[in-house]
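lol ok so funny story. i was supposed to be doing the assay writeup but got distracted and ended up predicting the structure for this chain instead. priorities right. anyway since i did it might as well share w the group, maybe its usefull for someone
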Amino acid sequence: MEFNVVNHQLCVDNININGVAASSLFLIGDVQTIQLSSAFDTPPESLIIKPLALIPKA
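and the output, tada:
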């Protein structure tokens, strides 16, 4: 996906951030490339690994 935005003259006076979402990007200014990634942060004790149960064919 290519997303082009042209801000000719940008003046930021004040910014208040009350919270962020699970996945967010906050940017003021210019950037050539943005690469987004994510990580699944789960404690090891909440991860359940067990064999898959096969469903028999009728």
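The chain is about 0% helix and 0% strand. The mean pLDDT is 76.
back to the writeup now i swear
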